[in-house]
Amino acid sequence: MLNSRMIQVLRELMASEAALTSEYLANIVQVTSRTIRDDIKSLDRLLSTNGAIIHSIRGKGYELQINDDQLFRQYLHQFIQEDSNANEVAPDLPEERTKYLIKRLLLAEGYLKLDGLSDEMHISKSTIQNDLKNAKKILLTYGITLETRPNYGMKVKGSEVKLRFAMSEYVFNRSEKVASSLLNDQLSLLTKEENLNEIWTIIFDQINENGITLSDIAVNNLFIHIAIAYNRIKSGHHVSLFKKELNEIIDKKEYDVAKKIVSKAEEVLKVTFPQVEIAYIAIHLLGTKMINQTNMSEQEIGNMMESDVYQLTTKVLETIETKLNLKVRHDRELIIGLGLHFKPAINRYRYGMNIRNPMLNDIKANYPLAFEAGIVAGLVLEEHMGVKIDENEIGYLALHIGAAMERHKLESGPKRCMIVCASGLGSAQLIKYKLQSRFGSKLEVLGTTEYYKLDQIPFEETDFIISSVPITQHLSVPVIEVNTILGEKDLGKIEEFVLDRASSVYHYIKRDLVYLNKSFHTKEEVLTFLVEKLKEKELVYEGFLEAVYQREAVAPTSFGNLVAIPHPITPQSDETFVAICTLDRPIIWEEKRVQFVCLLSVEKDSSEDLQNMYEMLGKIVENTTIIQQILKSKTYNEFIKVLLR
């Protein structure tokens, strides 16, 4: 029988292309290397009769070798069906225990006692109290508190709306294994497959017939909502909405569609949904994309959108442009996409609805710069609506922005530069011809000019300036200073800009800011240590650490794979740099284990394109082999060799 540790080891091995060491797996699962080796022996025995083995490679670690794909898949399928109950009964890992507690609390009819939970989960009272702290924190993000009564136990407390949304995330999490042992009791009728299929069909038929476009996640949430609503109506619980809010919803087209969905669902489920439930389903439908993308001008798009939504969209895009210089301000698809997203988002926040983002970790790891732009957008939204925007929402905003960034890459064509010279036209022409012979169609020279005519340069059309004289004033585009007779070193500097390699992470790693194998126990210790070092070197000033914590409060910068990339919420320093700290053992950083900390600081008002640096950091984050080797590095030279490899 697979225990929860073995499941996690198997998951890690399946996800990794390279071999994983027992030390790495031990850090992830938070046990000793010896326990991992024992787990791997047991896992190998189980897998060997099911189409796979775990191959041990001397000096490299373990890798999963699948010999019979079909047999292995059958095993996984059967394991998911048969063993989900066993996995739910006694979860081993702190994250799993927290999720289990949240599920138990949300589904309990009355009070739950600490002793009972402690026996049920086979853990001590002190461990469970610690897990409860985490569960409380998570529940609080849904507006749910824990009520404790002496001799009775604990019970969740919050509006019906909030409880439902917490349940839809934690209990009916369809993207992960469902807690079927708990669910089957709760939804005995709905677990009949024909009922479930009929509900799906009703939703799809109605949204298609009425021209409503819902994303997969929105359809999923609506289905889950009907399942929960059915269960709660049967036990006499109803959602309460203020009368005023109800009237606003009744006038909308979505309310009519919700009525049709409900009347058909009532036939299948043999219950009567009260009017507030219909209104509540209509709120789900308000989270839709109502208009198909068209080829309208920016002004026409503005006229079509509701003015408050258009103003919000414009403000978000202008703020992103000012802070991150992504060149997506006038992307029409992005304007329509965000406008369509903001309307339902405002509705969701108004009615306290959380939306889950199953892609969140992938977005953070693969599109880190787009995620930062999503945070900027989220802060503008927070200011506009006076509510806290959570990272699931930020992830969706990042998807829209990331798509626009990819479009900009495709459309951007050759890089464009201006040449600035002091010693007459001849030398400027010399530089121009040398550039054309070296870079051909990859670089367009817009023209040459003298230093005193700097203010006449068309900066909005220029990607960078090549100058044979020092330019001391601050310009809105990067300046590359070169010799009049271009040497190989000069051409190398220019090539980095032309081929978009200017912002590779190595340029910003300072030798005296790499700290290896430190012994810290909390993220606070690590951050305080790094920021103190930066202050000593006069790279940052007062308020820097506070800005880093502000960024963490919006969305943790721990990405999984033992990596965290903390940074201030807005640029704070006079130059861009990276400070590194590796730890001798992992620490817990907002529910994820972290052993490699990369503190990033971007120059204030910088016009450089940092996309490549972020992409490079992204590649490091997702590469388990690189992380394992970095964590083994004892010196700066070993560390930098790993990165250059």
Folded structure, characterized:
This protein folds into six domains: 9-85, Winged helix-like DNA-binding domain superfamily/Winged helix DNA-binding domain (Arc Repressor Mutant, subunit A), CATH 1.10.10; 90-186, Arc Repressor Mutant, subunit A (Orthogonal Bundle), CATH 1.10.10.10; 193-286, PTS-regulatory domain, PRD; 298-411, PTS-regulatory domain, PRD; 415-498, Response regulator (Rossmann fold, 3-Layer(aba) Sandwich); 505-644, Mannitol-specific EII, Chain A. 55% of the residues lie in helices and 13% in strands. It contains 27 helices and 13 strands. It has a five-stranded mixed sheet with strand order 9-12-13-11-10. Strands 6-5-7-8 form a four-stranded parallel sheet, covered by helices on one side. A two-stranded antiparallel ribbon has the order 1-2. The chain is globular. Mean pLDDT is 79; it is low at 80-89, 172-191 and 288-294.
Task: Name some characteristics of this structure.
645 residues; alpha/beta; Arc Repressor Mutant, subunit A; PTS-regulatory domain, PRD; 13% strand
- The average pLDDT score comes to 79
Strand neighbour order, sheet with most strands = 9-12-13-11-10
- Helix proportion range: 55-70%
Low-confidence parts: 80-89, 172-191, 288-294
- Could you please say which CATH topology of the largest domain applies here? Mannitol-specific EII, Chain A
The DSSP helix count reads 27
Name the CATH homologous superfamily of the largest domain: Mannitol-specific EII, Chain A
Structural class: alpha/beta
- Total tally of structural domains: 6
Major sheet description: 5 strands, mixed
Number of strands: 13
